[in-house]
Task: structure prediction
Amino acid sequence: MIRKHAVSMTALALLFAGPLAAQEAAGPKMTPEMQAMMEAFQKAGTPGAQHQQLAATAGTYDLTVKAWHAPGTEPTTDTGTATRKMILGNRVMVEEVTSQMMGQPYNGQGLHGYDNVTGKYWATWSDSMSTGLMVSEGSCDAKLACTYTGTYHDPVTKKPQTTRMTSRWPDKSTEVFEMYGPGMDGKETRMMEITYKKRAQ
Result:
């Protein structure tokens, strides 16, 4: 559905943009409604300050991954690497992660972006330990301290599960990401903490 919606929106934009561009070249003036529609699509698709912030975090990172499997227990600790780069004309960041989890090789891929239309940051995540997709939305401040709410389908209950995620930058080369979800008692508990250390370029 998400893919179909995105394709539909792109087709709609092209549907309007093509004739409008042709009209501009030919000389006839657009109606105010057509002009407003064209400007709205252009504004929605133009990267801005938020996308520049994301681009500033591109690079290669060393990871320390802590995971809590039950409240009150010591976390397991693994290491890994992450690479981040901008795609689609600096509109979206793609992140590739290679690590270990529960003694098994782990690979994940995420997309991160900012939607000019909703005014929200968004993210997706898929990995080698599932066949599903987590979709998240949230807000960030000027220093990219963020809070997201993510939704995925729980493998046991088959029902949608919600998690809360935060990220902060103690310094320019360090990001701390945390994920929280419901524990066995239904109360929110910390599930994961990932510390990103950016390599010097």
